[in-house]
Amino acid sequence: MITDKYGQLVYDEKDLCDLYMSNTEISLKNVLTTSNIDINALELNDAPHLIPHIIKEDLSVEEFDSINRENWYIPGEYKDFDIAKFVLDQCKDEAELQRAGEELLLYQERDLFMLLRYLKYFVDTMRKNSIVWGVGRGSSVSSFVLYLIGVHRINSLYYDLSINEFLK
């Protein structure tokens, strides 16, 4: 959170997520965010944590992706969660361990472990709040790891679905 040159508090998306996650009550009636403020009204030297792509419009896709991969708004317990151990602990036999291990290596090669942690948080949050979601859609059902996390209910090992269908 910063103060612009007019003395108004400006929240970036991380600030708002942090407030929400800490159950702090905040009135959103008069909240300024980085998406609805005049960037020229900010003292940018005092605001280095603003989302860079709002200030800097010449980012490449790779730079944009790199910046946003570092900003996962999930509780700390999920950021540091050992997702590989969790997935492997869900396996019931050697075939499941083999498939889960192969998939985890593919997710790791693609630097997608934080995405898996986020999906675990997302599924846990939906369960906690009794939110119903679908059985599974499209190529995601070919991922056994996503099945073990609870994203979908299709056991791709049972139906002999190749992980290559998901990672195309």
Folded structure, characterized:
The protein has 168 residues and is mostly helical. The protein folds into two domains: 2-69, no CATH class; 76-165, no CATH class. It contains eight helices and three strands; from the N terminus they run ββαβααααααα. It has helices spanning 13-21, 52-55, 61-69, 76-79, 83-90, 94-109, 113-128, 144-149, and strands spanning 2-3, 9-11, 32-33. It has a three-stranded mixed sheet with strand order 1-2-3. Helix 1 (13-21) links the parallel strand 2 (9-11) and strand 3 (32-33). The chain is elongated and about 60 Å long. Residues 44-55 have low confidence and may be disordered.
Mean pLDDT score: 79
Number of helices: 8
Give the tally of β-strands. 3
Helix content: 40-55%
**Which shape, going by the Cα principal axes?**
elongated
Output the structural class.
Answer: mainly alpha
Strand order of the largest sheet: 1-2-3
Strand content: under 5%
Alpha-carbon Rg, integer: 20 Å
At a glance:
With 168 residues, this protein is mainly alpha-helical. 43% of the residues lie in helices and 4% in strands.
SSE map:
Elements: E1 2-3, E2 9-11, H1 13-21, E3 32-33, H2 52-55, H3 61-69, H4 76-79, H5 83-90, H6 94-109, H7 113-128, H8 144-149
Parallel strand pairs: 2-3
Antiparallel strand pairs: 1-2
Brief descriptors of the model:
168 residues; 4% strand; mainly alpha; single chain; elongated; 3-stranded mixed β-sheet; 2 domains
